[in-house]
Amino acid sequence: MQNAEKQIIDGKEYTVVKMQNQPKKNVTTDEDVVAEAATIAFYYPQYTLKQIYEELPAYQVREMIKVVRREQASQLLLLNGIIHGPNAKRKEEYRKLIKNLQKQAK
Hints:
The protein is mainly α and 106 residues long. It has one domain (29-105). Helix content is 58%, strand content 11%. A two-stranded antiparallel sheet has the order 1-2. Helix 1 crosses helix 3 (58-84). The longest helix has 27 residues, at 58-84. The radius of gyration is 27 Å and the shape is elongated.
């Protein structure tokens, strides 16, 4: 065993194994909570910073942030497809993307 050593305690021999260091839990500071609340207030204008900070539970704030990040990622992927689509070797995917956007715009 690694980190094992033998010790004699009260005349008896014991094998002592040191415990591994446990990773520290992510401690949320007040600054993190305020930053999350500010993010939600920016993307969801129906909530004030005070409402978010005082009334909404932390799990709901985190879920709202996940939704915002997912939406931003999908928008960026869409823009990336539009920008780089004409230069792609297979233009079929680009044409499908443009047709779907035109249908949604109507």
